[in-house]
Amino acid sequence: MAANPMVYKWLSALMCYPEADLIEALPEFQTALNEWPELSAHKAGLQALLDHLGSRSLRELQEDYVLVFDRTRQHALYIFEHVYGEDRDRGSAMVDLLEEYRRHGFELGDEELPDYLPALLEFFAHIPAEEAEKLLGDAVHVINHIGKNLTTYGSPYAALLQAAVALSPVAPQPLTEPPVRDMDEAMETFGPDVQGLEPLLKPSVQTVQFYPNGRPA
C-alpha cells in the first residue's frame, strides 16, 4: 500500500528551519504521529524530536538547526552535496531534477535548490504515489547516509531521515564520500551565478540521478 502523501509533508515541514508557526503547530504534528501507521515504526525517535522542539526556545532551536545542518557538511540536506561534492556533474544533476519538478507543473522559488530534501519530500506529496516511491527509491541511499551521520552526531533530527528511509521500497546501500573539486575549476566550467558565488547549472542528460552512474557507490 502506498504511503499517505501527507506523511511526506509532515517530514518535510519538521526538517525545515524552525519558525514560530511550526512550533505553534506542534499539537497537530503530535496528533498525526499518534494516528498515522506509516510513522509508527519510528515513533519513539520522532516523539523525541517533537519533545525537543517543544521544550526549547525558538532562538535555541534555530541556533541548533544552523549548527547541525548549515555548519556541518556531513549533515547537509542537499542530496547532491553527498553525491557529487563540487564535481561538475552536480550541475547537470540539478538541471535534470529541476526538469522533473517542471514535468509535474512545479516551479521552485529563486532561492531554493531542487535537491534540498525538504523540498523534495514536499514534491513527493503532490505527485502520483508510484512516481514518488520511485524517486524516493533513487534517493534513499543518500537519505540513509545523512541519517546515519545525524545519528552518530546525536541529533534528534535523525529520526526524520530514518522515517523517510522506511517509506522507500528500495533498501539503502552505503555511499562513499563525494569528490571534492577546486571551486576555481568549477567556476571556469559553469560560470558564476547572479551573485557571483556558485556555478551556474547547465543541462545535459534528461534522467534524474541521485548518485553517479545510476547506482550507489
Distance between the termini: 30 Å
Mean pLDDT: 82
**Strand fraction band?**
under 5%
- The low-pLDDT segments are 179-209, 211-217
Q: N-to-C SSE series?
A: HHHHHHHHHH
Number of helices: 10
Q: What is the percent of helical residues?
A: 40-55%
What number of structural domains do the residues give?
A: 1
Shape: globular
The protein's oligomeric status is single chain
Protein name: Redox enzyme maturation protein NarJ
Keywords: Nitrate assimilation
InterPro entries: DMSO/NO3_reduct_chaperone, NO3_reductase_chaperone_NarJ, TorD-like_sf
Pfam families: Nitrate_red_del
Provide an overview of this structure.
By secondary structure, this protein is mainly α. The chain has one domain. The protein is built from 10 helices and no strands. Helix 1 packs antiparallel against helix 7 and helix 8 packs antiparallel against helix 9. It is globular, with a radius of gyration of 17 Å. It starts with a helix and ends in a 27-residue tail after the last helix. The C terminus is likely disordered.
Task: Describe, in short, the structure shown.
The chain has 217 residues and is mainly α. The protein has helices at residues 5-15, 20-24, 26-35, 43-54, 58-70, 89-103, 117-124, 129-153, 158-166, 183-190. The chain has one domain (5-184).
Name the descriptors:
217 residues; mainly alpha; globular
